[in-house]
Every structure is written in structure tokens, then in C-alpha cells.
Amino acid sequence: MENIKQNLNYLLIDINEYITISPISTSSIILQNLGQALPSKLEYVRWALTIKESDFRLFLENSQDIFINKLLIKQNGSDDILHCIKEYIMTVKYLAIKNIENRIDLFDMKDQVKELSYIIF
Questions:
Q1: What is the pLDDT, as a whole number, of residue 67?
Q2: Phi and psi angles of residue 6, each rounded to the nearest 5 degrees, phi first
Q3: What are the sequence ranges of the domains in the chain?
Q4: What is the overall mean pLDDT for the chain?
């Protein structure tokens, strides 16, 4: 595992298209364990998960010392995860969030984007 941590720069996870069992439970398992498995710096992370707020909060708690240059999240669940990012202030240079179920895109939320730009940078 340490060798993977040293060489991992890009991580793409797309659970919703390829999983035949429950995408919610699979996404939960990934988020509950991913924070402690990642290296301290990643160039690019892209997720397509059904994210429960409690699992996302746990991921953020476990990954507070991780720098991610670009984080793209495609959220298929209805839980609001944006306030978790504000609370934990992840070290991310570029952030994109799209909620498929609620048809919400962070780009369309101008006030949130402005607030996050002050928090993240």
C-alpha cells in the first residue's frame, strides 16, 4: 500500500455505472476508507458516487492533511455535501461539484462559488 501511495497522482472512481450491487453501500465503503489510504498530495481526483453526508464528512475528517490540486465530484445522491467542504476547508486548488439527482451544479451557484473562493484560496 505504501508503494501505491508514493506513486499515485490521479484517481478516478465511477461507481454508478459499473456496480451491480447497491451503489450507495459501495460508495459508503469507499468514502469511509479512502481518507486514510490516500497519499499526502494528489494532482487530480474525480468521483462519480452516491454520497451520503455522513460518509463524506468522515472522508473529510480522515483526509485533512491531503492536498488535492483538482477535485471533481459528481454526486448522485440527494444529500447536501457543500456545507461539509466549507466546514472542513479541504486543501484543494480547483473544485467542481455537480449533483445529478437535484440537478445542481456548483458553477451555477454564484454566491457559493464566491464564498468558497475566499475559503479555499
A1: 87
A2: -70, -30
A3: 2-120
A4: 76
For the chain, the three-class secondary structure string (H helix, E strand, C coil) is CHHHHHHCCEEEEEHHHHCCCCHHHHHHHHHHHHCCCCCCEEEEEEEEECCCHHHHHHHHHHCCCCEEEEEEEEECCCCCCHHHHHHHCCEEEEEEEEECCCCEEHHHCHHHHHHHHHHHC
On whether the CB atoms of residues 48 and 72 are closer than 8 A, the answer is no
What pLDDT shows up at residue 6? 72
d(CA 41, CA 45): 11
Among the listed residues 80, 37, 72, the one whose alpha carbon sits nearest the alpha carbon of residue 56 = 80
Query: Does the pLDDT value for residue 107 go beyond 70?
Result: no
What whole-number distance in Å separates Cα of residue 48 and Cα of residue 16? 7
pLDDT in tens, 63-103: 888 888 888 888 877 788 877 877 776 666 777 777 655 55
Distance CA(81)–CA(77), nearest Å, equals 10
